[in-house]
Amino acid sequence: MATAVMTRLDPQSRAAARGWSDLSIRNLFILPTIAFLIVFNIFPLIYSLGYSFTDYRASTNAPANFIGLANYRDLLNDDFIWNNFIVTAKYVLVSVSGQVIVGFGIALLLNRAIPFKGLITTLLLLPMMMSMAVVGLFWKLLYDPSWGIINYVFRLGDFAWLSNRDAALYAVAITDIWMWSPFVMLLSLAGLSAVPKHLYEAAAIDRAGTWYTFTRITLPLVAPILLIAIIFRTMEAFKTFDLAYIMSSQDTTELISIKLYKMAFQEWQTGKSSALAYIVLIMVLAITNIYVKYLNRVKER
Amino acid sequence: MAAVKSSGALVGNRLAITAILVITIVFLAPIYWIASTAFKPRALATTVPPTVFFQPEITPFIKLFVKRVQLTKPVDPAVYEAAPWWEKRIFDNGERVLRTGPNVQLSAYPSRFMNSLIIAITSTVLAVGMGTFTAYGFSRFKIKGEQDLLFFILSTRMLPPVVVAIPMFLMYRAVGMTDTHIGLIVLYTAFNLSFSVWLMKGFMDEIPKEYEEAALVDGYTRMQAFFKIVLPEAATGIAATAVFCFITAWNEYAFALIMTNRRAQTAPPFIPSQLGSGVIDWTVIAAGTFLFLLPVAIFTFALRGHLLRGVTFGAIRK
């Protein structure tokens, strides 16, 4: 009997005959969660899939008319929506590459004996734990053209970061980089500390240069975990709503989530916004899928 | 082995330490700025050049909690003398406190802060409670299609909030659940549940199965073994997971913006909405922000050993 419980329990086994059977305990523990997620995540999505084929507007009492794929066709032919996707792509690119450069850079600097290393690391991680909405709000104060501290420190005069059509997206991205570089730093540090020291010692004996050591030893070994950081941040940046919505109301910063929000809750185009939500959803699930694959691969090592 | 460091490496190390110090200061500057603005006299909040050194005062926090209006005529000296110390500060700012009868009218901030607390704590308890059981199930029992189920659970977390909010808003409106605490609690529980399952599974996997097996051999039922052996062992993991879930719910903005507007509104949509109303008093906004960020800052230090795990959904430990 004891040997039967040694391995992972088969719920059908009678190993634990006393009290509840393992099968019923398993179901009791797992099914409520699955049911909860189905009711509050999957069911709503099915509900909105239905609406995406209609011209329903939640602001009126008019019944929803079935209009087939018209919403999807309109959206995919709409230049403005494409523009939202382009803005989003630009934002993702600027903000994620900024985070990788800054975050990985800090990790390289931190990857040595430094006094108060733990304290410094924790302090650097503070920004990413904060509310994006509130961070966006106080960065507005920092960016203020007349008395903001950023323009004062960098001698930028009255440069209006957030009301400048071209600069606004970068201003939001800079805030995002400030917030999330520490995330990349945290993962990179984990990757760097896992590089076996003897590889560096061997390289030193061979009189390998710093650059050679970096590109041939450090980078390849840290790459998998860095990739996880990149995919995760890409997914999050793609979904960004709070930060850009609070900081700027320019059309040059109208990310796809903001467009979706406006379409659904300001223009009340419920049917059409449900269709757009589905387009966004499919893109997010695709990135999630890639993310989980890599996560599992790294976990196995 | 003691490596003999060349003088070049030593100089490099010094440079790196200096760079780290500079970077840390740059990263903390925005946080320092918001914290210091919360203690500034109003006149010093938006000066050119910016004011770095000043005599801190707590007037912004007093203003944050009470309803005020501009004084139209100077205060009667007798009234001023009779007022409590904190009300004098308001008078000194050229404003007076609104009252209904003898009672001070509170601003919306305390009620929004309370809403945030109620909603974040309740949804955390639910998500971590359910997540702990589920994680144990996934960790210990054979489950058909386990990987697919886990992916399904994770994918619910990745959904963009606005995508979920559209149908949820319609459903809530149909049953009268918009602007209710329970409405946000349900959404945040669903949102945090998947995170809690993934993180707790990592912690459960680390508890040796032999502990329960020994208990089962000693005559415990599996339920008893779970409650008396596994749960105490998982306490640290449960605490860390709870703090992460709390912070996520505490910080959440999009659902709160869409689903609430007054009664159940939380702090994140409320604090920025103050910008729209009349003359902006940044010291009061900074005070509200400071109080709102304080718990998160404290928790970040409490969590420091678990941050890596938390942000990778338990996949990467130290």
TrEMBL record, chain A:
Its main location: membrane. The keyword Transmembrane applies. Residues 85-291 form the ABC transmembrane type-1 domain. The chain crosses the membrane at residues 28-47, 91-110, 122-142, 167-190, 211-232, 275-292. It is found in: Cell membrane. Pfam families: BPD_transp_1. It is a multi-pass membrane protein. Keywords: Membrane, Sugar transport, Transmembrane, Transmembrane helix, Transport. Belongs to the binding-protein-dependent transport system permease family. This is Multiple sugar transport system permease protein.
From TrEMBL, chain B:
It is a multi-pass membrane protein. Gene3D superfamilies: MetI-like. It is found in: Cell membrane. It holds the Pfam family BPD_transp_1. CDD domains: TM_PBP2. The keyword Metal-binding does not apply. The chain crosses the membrane at residues 15-35, 117-138, 150-170, 182-200, 229-250, 282-303. InterPro entries: BP-dep_ABC_trans_perm (IPR050901), MetI-like (IPR000515), MetI-like_sf (IPR035906). Residues 113-303 form the ABC transmembrane type-1 domain. Keywords: Cell membrane, Membrane, Sugar transport, Transmembrane, Transmembrane helix, Transport. Coiled coil: none annotated. PANTHER family: ABC TRANSPORTER PERMEASE PROTEIN, MALTOSE TRANSPORT SYSTEM PERMEASE-RELATED. Belongs to the binding-protein-dependent transport system permease family. This is Multiple sugar transport system permease protein.
